[in-house]
Design brief:
Elements (H helix, E strand, L loop, with lengths): L1 H10 L3 H13 L10 H20 L4 H9 L4 E7 L4 H15 L4 E7 L4 H4 L12 E5 L5 E5 L4 H14 L4 H14 L2 H12 L1
Parallel strand pairs: 1-2
Antiparallel strand pairs: 1-3, 3-4
Length: 197
């Protein structure tokens, strides 16, 4: 496992590089990942717009800022993601804002489909759900994980699946509405709770 993590870290990119990668691929009419389709391209375009908006509008709470600024142990948030993933577009800008306020927190991103052996070590309910954040200490030991969604959204997904069997377009629309109203607060709460452990 440690070898997999270290190998992934050697090819990981920072948030700015990730945003540039997604934008450059879109300019070529492509999404990230080996599978290309009109649907994935459209999701990627929508997510690129979401991330641009969130980069400008996400505000960290005073509690989040205060706690994150006090973190004095170096750590890395290694994130498995893809440009077409709606949950990633909503959550990674928040993680970036958190990492920006403390030099002890390094945000590194890798594409899921280029790192399936790593992804398969961190499945969610047997699935390759992203974004998946692997929180590492200075020696690249796994401290904790987070994802693919904040706790409130995770409960929404679970409840809807139990009631309806699967997620449909209506639910996905409702989830995006929830993300827009939440404004990254639940992600902040989750990450602060993990860092406090």
């Amino acid at each position: 496992m440690k070898e997999l993590i270290n190998k992934s870290l050697t090819k990981a990119i920072n948030y700015t590089e990730y945003r540039e990668l997604v934008s450059n691929l879109l300019a070529e009419g492509k999404s990230t990942g080996p599978n290309q389709s009109d649907a994935l391209l459209n999701y990627s375009k929508l997510n690129d717009k979401r991330m641009k908006r969130l980069d400008k509008t996400i505000k960290l709470s005073e509690e989040t800022k205060s706690f994150v600024e006090s973190v004095d142990t170096p750590q890395t948030f290694l994130v498995l993601t893809e440009g077409w993933c709606g949950d990633a577009a909503q959550n990674i800008p928040v993680l970036n804002k958190i990492a920006e306020i403390n030099k002890n927190i390094s945000l590194k991103l890798v594409l899921r489909d280029e790192n399936l052996p790593l992804m398969d070590e961190f499945l969610t309910n047997g699935g390759r759900s992203i974004p998946k954040v692997i929180i590492l200490d200075e020696e690249t030991n796994v401290v904790d994980t987070w994802g693919p969604r904040p706790t409130v959204a995770t409960k929404m997904v679970k409840d809807y699946k139990e009631a309806n069997g699967s997620l449909d377009a209506d639910f996905k629309k409702d989830l995006q509405v929830w993300y827009n109203k939440d404004k990254g607060v639940n992600v902040q709460e989750d990450i602060v709770a993990i860092l406090k452990k």
